[in-house]
Task: inverse folding
C-alpha cells in the first residue's frame, strides 16, 4: 500500500492506495463514528458494496444506491440523499462513505458538506478519473443552467483507493482517466508524462504501474491544492487542457465524448498554443501519436465549429470580460497563465485543426 | 457608529452598527465587486430596499424579493435564488447582500455559501433577533423533517447593522430579539443583563440604548464563536435557554410563540435548574417579573404537556443517547454544561411550572 498526507486548511487527511483496500475499510477508519452511511451508484453497488459493508463491523451501517450517471448530480437527487440521512438518524458524529467515481464523490461529498452544516466523509474512488476529483475538497451538483454551479469546499477525512476496483473499468473509462494523469505529468512531473505515454493502456501490464501513476498524479494535485485551496491562484493551473476540453464536451454534447477524451485534445491544443506563443518545445507529435494508438477519438474536433468552440471558451468560469485565460506550458513541468484574445484564439484553433489534428 | 472585528478561521470581518447605514452601504463596502445581488423579503423590501440600492453606484445591481416567513427557508426557494444568481450572471467576484431578519440571513447566506462553491456576502440585519444569527457564519435552510438541517458555515465579509431599520419592528419582534440579548448577558456580561432587564421595551427611550445592547450582545457571541467556530466545545453555551425554548416552539406550533419568547421561558427554566442542581443564586423572580411586564406570553408553558416537552428536549440536535445536555449557570456570566436525566428533567419541569410559572 502506498500512502500520502494532504494538508487542507482545517485538517490533514491521508490518501491510501493499494490492492484490496475495500476489504479492510473498517480497520482503516481512524475515528469512531456513531453511524456510517455508504452512498454509491447502481453501477458500483453490485460490484463492491457488499465487500465494503462486510469490512465494517460494530457500527450501524446504512446504504443508499442511486441511478448511475451525471444526471444524478441534480437538486432532487441531492435532496433525496439528505432525506435518507435524516431518516436513518445520521447525527453530527456520523460518517458518509462515497463509493464510486467522480459523480458519487461530488454528490455524496456535497451531502456531507451540508448535512447538519457538515459531517465527515471518506472518498473511495473506483475510477482512474476520480484520482483527480477525490482530492482537493471540491464537491458540487449541477444546475440545469450549468455544471457544478452549486457546491462547496469540503475535504474528505480520508481517501481510500482500492486499485483492484479499477480492473472492472471499461477501457474507455481507463483511457478517460489517463488524460488527467498525463495532465498532472505536464504540470509538474515530466517523467510521469513520458512514462505514461510510453505504455499501452490496453495492455494488462498497465495495472502494474497504475498504483504508481495514481500516486504521482494525486501528489501533484495535492501539492497544488495545499498551496491554493480556494482557487485564487495557482490552482488554476489544474485547468490545463480544460479550456478547450470543456468546450468540446459541451459542444459535442455530454455523453458523446468523455471528459478525459475531451481534455486529451485540450492538452494537445494547450501544447500547440504554448509552442506558437511561447516558442516552447512541446512533444505534440508524440502525444498525438500515443493518443491515436490508445483510441482517443481525436477526429471529434474536426466536426465542431471553431467559432462555437471559441464562444464556449469565453463563457468558461475562469474567463473574465471576454478574454480567455489559458494555462500554457513554458516547458513540460512549467505551467503559466496567459490571456488570449478572441481573434487570436480563433486563428490558433483553426491552424491547430489543420496542422495537428488532420495528420 | 460603533464597530468591532470578528476573527473567523479563514478571514476577519467587521460588524458596524449605527444610524442610517443603509444610505452609505456603497461607500462602506471594502472591495470591488463585479456584480451585487440584494436578497430580501416582501416585508423588508418596501421599507429599505430602495435606500440600499441608491447607496450603491457604479456596480450592476440585481434584487430578488421572496415572500417573507420561515417557510421561505425551503429547498425550492433556495433553488430559485440560485437560478436568479445564474440568470443575472453572478460570477465568483460578485457579492450578495442579505437584507432582512434571520430568515433572509440564513437563506441568502446559504446561497452565498454554495453558489460556485462560495461567494462573498454581507449581512444587513433588520431585526434585533438577527444580531445573534448575523454573526458566526451559520447558514441554513430547513428540511421538511427538521429545522436548519441543511446548511454550512460561511462567514459574511461584513455585517452592516442600521439601527434605524429596527424602529419599524413590531413590538413583539423587538421583544423576541431581546431574549437573545439577555441570554448573551447571562453568558458573559451580568451588567448587560441587569441593564436590559431594568428597561421598559415599550418605552421609546429603548432606541437610545439599543445600539449599545446590540454591540455588547454581538461582542459576546463573537468571542464565543471565535474560540469555537465549528461548535465542538464552548459554542454550545450559546444554547442557553434553547433546550426548553426549542421544545416550546415546536410543541406550541411554530408561529404561535416567537423564537425569542420561547427562549425567554427557556432562560428562566435554565436558571431554575441551575438553582436546584448547582445551588446557584439566580435572579429568577426579577427576570420573571420583567418578562411579565414586557408582555412575554409566560402562560404558554402551562398549556403544554410536560412529557411531550421532555420528549422533544431528548431529540434536540445537542442531546446524545437519551440524556439531555443543558447549559446551566454557576452564576450570572459563568455557563457550564450539565447532563440531566429524563426522570429528573421531568420532575424539575413540573416543579418549575408550579413554583415559578404559576405565580
Result:
Amino acid at each position: 500500500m502506498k500512502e500520502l498526507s494532504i494538508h487542507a486548511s482545517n485538517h490533514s487527511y491521508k490518501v491510501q492506495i493499494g490492492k484490496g483496500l475495500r476489504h479492510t475499510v473498517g480497520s482503516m477508519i481512524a475515528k469512531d463514528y456513531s453511524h456510517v452511511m455508504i452512498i454509491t451508484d447502481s453501477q458500483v453497488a453490485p460490484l463492491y458494496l457488499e465487500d465494503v459493508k462486510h469490512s465494517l463491523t460494530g457500527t450501524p451501517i446504512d446504504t443508499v444506491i442511486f441511478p448511475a450517471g451525471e444526471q444524478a448530480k441534480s437538486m432532487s437527487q441531492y435532496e433525496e440523499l439528505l432525506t435518507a440521512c435524516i431518516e436513518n438518524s445520521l447525527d453530527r458524529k456520523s460518517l458518509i462513505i462515497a463509493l464510486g467515481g467522480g459523480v458519487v464523490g461530488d454528490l455524496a461529498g456535497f451531502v456531507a458538506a451540508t448535512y447538519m452544516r457538515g459531517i465527515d466523509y471518506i472518498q473511495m474512488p473506483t475510477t482512474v478519473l476520480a484520482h483527480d476529483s477525490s482530492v482537493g475538497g471540491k464537491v458540487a451538483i449541477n444546475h440545469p443552467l450549468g455544471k457544478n454551479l452549486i457546491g462547496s469546499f469540503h475535504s474528505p477525512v480520508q481517501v481510500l483507493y482500492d486499485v483492484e476496483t479499477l480492473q472492472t473499468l471499461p477501457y474507455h473509462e481507463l483511457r478517460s482517466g489517463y488524460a488527467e494523469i498525463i495532465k498532472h505529468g505536464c504540470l509538474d512531473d515530466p517523467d510521469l508524462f513520458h512514462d505514461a505515454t510510453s505504455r499501452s493502456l490496453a495492455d494488462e501490464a498497465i495495472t502494474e504501474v497504475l498504483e504508481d501513476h495514481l500516486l504521482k498524479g494525486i501528489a501533484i494535485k495535492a501539492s497544488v491544492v495545499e498551496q491554493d485551496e480556494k482557487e485564487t491562484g495557482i490552482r488554476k493551473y489544474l485547468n490545463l487542457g480544460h479550456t478547450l476540453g470543456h468546450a468540446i464536451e459541451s459542444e459535442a454534447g455530454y455523453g458523446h465524448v468523455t471528459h478525459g477524451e475531451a481534455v486529451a485534445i485540450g492538452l494537445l491544443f494547450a501544447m500547440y498554443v504554448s509552442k506558437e506563443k511561447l516558442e516552447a518545445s512541446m512533444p505534440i507529435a508524440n502525444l498525438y501519436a500515443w493518443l491515436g494508438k490508445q483510441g482517443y477519438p481525436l477526429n471529434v474536433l474536426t466536426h465542431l465549429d471553431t467559432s462555437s468552440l471559441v464562444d464556449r471558451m469565453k463563457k468558461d468560469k475562469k474567463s473574465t470580460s471576454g478574454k480567455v485565460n489559458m494555462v500554457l506550458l513554458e516547458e513540460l513541468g512549467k505551467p503559466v497563465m496567459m490571456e488570449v484574445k478572441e481573434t487570436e484564439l480563433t486563428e490558433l484553433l483553426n491552424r491547430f485543426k489543420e496542422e495537428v489534428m488532420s495528420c
